Amino acid sequence: MIGKDNSRSYQELNDDDCDTQSPGFFDDATEDLTDKELNGSISGEDDIRESTPSVRFSKTCLKNFFTVLLILIYVLLTAVAVFLAYQTISEFLQKLNHPVMSVNYKEVDSFSPPGIALYPGSAQLLSCRHHQHDYIPPLVDPGKPQEGDCVIEEVNYLGPFTNQTEKRALVVRGPSDVRNKELIFIQFSHNETQEDFSAITYMLFAKFSDLTDSANKSDFMRDCERNYSTWTISGGFRTWVKMSLVTTFGKSNEAVAFRQESAVVKFNDKRPESEKLNQLFFAVFQWRDPFMQEIRLIVTANPWSSVAILCGVFMALFKAANFAKLTIQWIIKMRKRHLRNKELKQIN
Asked: How does 281-311 read in b/e, with b if 16+ C-beta sit within 10 Å?
């Protein structure tokens, strides 16, 4: 009896278990699980959709900010490049039109003998002698003609400014040996009773040989007087003239000019009173030093440096234009994407 009851109860438990594990039971469990998973996935997608616009908005704002910043930087660089190009071209033109003077000193052993043109008027040439080493011997019988060793050319011509005035010039061959300090000592005598002021005018030009080699000496002296300056020797004094030669090289030609330093010393006249009516003039001409000054006009504008700067400027401008083109294309692309997303949102 006991065995039968146990078997019966075990069978009933098995029946109950079979009832609880029926196919319908598994279907219900599967449906519950799928509903939970679907609900979880749907809620996750909603969360992602809710969080995605904010992240996308922040990235878009950041991109727009950096885009605008880069545009401003390139605009600034473009402005600086344009300014540098304008400044470079302006400086190049200014240096090209205004060359710089370069001064050089060339040492020589001797100079070409200059021409010393003296305009004595009614004065009389007493003597003209060469001396060496800055030494002039004491005067012997001043006011009387003495022997000389100078080469002198007498030229008569009409003045360049007043054609009706005839001028008489005594052109003396100047000193040349600068190492031995060669000089020329000249004496004149002039009766000063007929004039208010007593002075003798003189003029210097570069080479005495230019006068001797010229076909028309009158025209040569007229041109010299038109182009060169004149100075004066005062009566009753010894005027010591120290000359220096300056050569200026221009763009197409060269010019030669003299610079001089003069020292005046009073002459102590020891002649009798009857002879003092004739005023005496003394002049000494000598080279100051063995250096010839050369002045050249130099254009400091360097075209290669200007071209290099302009190339860099144009490259910067090209890069800026290329960047502006890409930026505009990117802005158009982003605008189209924004409109497309907006239309999709409206459809959804």
From this structure: bbbbbbbeeeebbbbeeeeebeeeebeebbe
Record the pTM.
0.61
Of the candidates 200, 274, 282, 195, the one whose C-alpha atom is nearest the C-alpha of residue 236 is 282
pLDDT digits (tens, 9 = 90+) for 244-278: 988 888 777 777 888 888 899 988 888 888 888 88
Tokens of 159: 């003045």
In DSSP terms, which residues pair with 101 in a beta bridge?
Answer: 297
- The angle formed by the CA atoms of residues 39, 44 and 46, to the nearest 5 degrees, is 95
Signed CA dihedral, 27, 31, 33, 38: sign only: positive
DSSP 246-263: EEEE-SS-EEEEEEEEEE
Dihedral Cα 309, 311, 314, 320, nearest 10 deg = -90
Cβ atoms of 271 and 143 within 8 Å: the answer is yes
First to last CA, the chain: 74
| Total residues belonging to the chain | 348
Question: Which is nearest to 202 in space by CA: 302, 282, 85, 83?
Answer: 282
- Residue 239: what pLDDT? 92
Residues 72, 81: Cα–Cα separation, whole Å: 14
Residues 279, 269: Cα–Cα separation, whole Å: 10
- 309-336 tens-digit pLDDT: 777 777 777 777 777 777 777 777 877 8
DSSP line for 281-328 = EEEEEEES-SEEEEEEEE----HHHHHHHHHHHHHHHHHHHHHHHHHH
Written as one letter, the residue type at 231 is W
The angle formed by the CA atoms of residues 56, 62 and 64, to the nearest 5 degrees, is: 100
Identify the segments of the chain with pLDDT beneath 70: 1-57, 59-60, 63, 163, 192-196, 348
d(CA 44, CA 36): 12
